Structure formats: structure tokens, C-alpha cells
């Protein structure tokens, strides 16, 4: 679940103000590296928000963890098993947030129809974990308009919860309990 997302498109007025602010911060940190935009694939490098030493900052990170058990990148982490899986249980404090215009999902039936999911009038804040300069997106059981398409969906934060997710000690567990964001579903042609 969640194997591609969109970021930084100028034609998305709902998100562009956020992207402009992020790009200004990014250019201060990485003046010679182009600001990542467009359709983001696993192994792509993007700019994410993260907490380091009690502060929120931006950092370039690559999407996906390598694993000696799989030749494929690990790009997602199931929220239900984070505390049990060796790969994740030691990095639960390494939280990051990935800003997106939308994300894609394909139906699990024979048609494999591609859909795009967006929020109305605001960006999507995807909850993640990071290790060194790599991140994964946390997923949960699908709800709302996602239930008919796929069994999993990204853990989407409300804008008001981003700071608490990144910096709060007790907030991490509570975010998984009451998270059902309103999304719009569109067929991709």
C-alpha cells in the first residue's frame, strides 16, 4: 500500500503555499540540489519533516529501507506491528512527516484500476519513520473511501497533529486509534 505519491505540483493551489514555504527552507539547506517535485516513487529522495534533538527540521531522505531478508525495498510499515518488528521497534522515536498533494492506489481486483486520493483544500501529511537518511510510510487498515479499493492505507495526520506526532512522547500511540481522514477518490485514466 502507498507505493507512489504526488508532491509539489504548482497547479494544486490548495497545497502550493505549503510547498513554497518548504522550498525556501530546502534551498537554505541544499542550495545546489534541485527541489524534488512530481510523482514520487520508492527509492526517490524527497524532503521530509522530522524531529531531531527536540526540534522540527527538514531533511532530504530516500524512500525505503534495505533489508537482508528481501531484495525489495521496505517502503511501508504496518502500524499494528511497529512495536514487534525488529526493523521498526528501535526507531519509534525517529518520526517523520511526508507532505503530499495526493497518493495513488490500485484496486486489488482483476482490473487493477489506478486511483488517486486527495484531501479537500489541504495537503496530506503522511506519518513515517526514518533511519539514517531513509524513511518508510506508516500504514493502517483501510477506512472510508479506501476500503473498497485496498486493504491498507497510509496513516494520514491532521495538520493540527503534525507537531505532536513529531515531538510528543505520548501522542504516538493515540494517533493510531482515531484516524479516518476525509479523502476524495478519483479514477486515473
Quote the beta fraction.
Answer: 35-45%
Largest sheet: 5 strands, antiparallel
Shape: globular
Mean pLDDT: 84
Low-confidence sequence ranges: none
- Report the span from N to C terminus: 20 Å
Biggest sheet strand order reads: 2-1-9-10-15
Tell me the radius of gyration. Answer: 16 Å
Which structural class is indicated by helix and strand composition?
alpha+beta
How many helical stretches? 4
Report helical residue fraction.
Answer: 10-25%
SSE sequence, one letter per element: EHEEEEEEHEEEEEEEHHE
DSSP summary, beta strand count: 15
What does this structure look like?
The protein has 189 residues and is α+β, with helices and mostly antiparallel strands. It is 16% helix and 40% strand. Strands 2-1-9-10-15 form a 5-stranded antiparallel β-sheet, with no helix packed on it. A 5-stranded mixed barrel has the order 3-4-12-11-8. A two-stranded antiparallel ribbon has the order 5-6. A hairpin with a 2-residue loop joins β11 and β12 (134-141). The model has no long low-confidence stretch (mean pLDDT 84).
Structure keywords:
40% strand, 189 residues, 4 helices, five-stranded mixed beta barrel, five-stranded antiparallel β-sheet, 15 strands, alpha+beta
Amino acid at each position: 500500500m502507498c507505493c507512489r505519491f504526488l508532491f509539489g505540483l504548482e497547479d494544486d493551489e490548495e497545497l502550493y503555499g505549503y510547498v513554497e514555504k518548504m522550498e525556501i527552507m530546502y534551498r537554505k539547506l541544499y542550495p545546489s540540489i534541485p527541489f524534488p517535485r512530481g510523482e514520487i516513487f520508492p527509492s526517490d529522495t524527497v524532503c521530509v519533516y522530522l524531529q531531531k534533538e527536540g526540534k522540527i527540521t527538514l531533511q532530504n531522505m530516500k524512500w525505503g529501507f534495505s533489508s537482508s531478508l528481501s531484495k525489495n525495498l521496505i517502503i511501508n510499515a504496518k502500524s499494528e506491528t511497529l512495536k514487534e518488528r525488529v526493523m521498526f521497534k528501535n526507531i519509534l522515536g525517529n518520526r517523520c512527516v511526508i507532505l503530499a498533494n495526493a497518493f495513488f492506489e490500485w484496486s486489488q481486483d482483476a482490473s487493477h484500476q489506478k486511483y488517486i486520493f486527495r484531501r479537500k483544500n489541504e495537503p496530506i501529511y503522511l506519518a513515517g519513520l526514518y533511519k539514517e537518511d531513509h524513511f518508510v510510510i506508516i500504514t493502517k487498515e483501510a477506512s472510508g473511501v479506501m476500503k473498497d479499493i485496498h486493504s491498507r492505507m497510509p496513516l494520514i495526520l491532521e495538520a493540527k497533529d503534525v507537531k505532536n506526532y513529531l515531538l510528543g512522547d505520548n501522542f504516538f500511540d493515540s494517533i493510531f486509534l482515531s484516524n479516518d481522514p476525509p479523502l476524495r477518490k478519483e479514477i486515473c485514466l
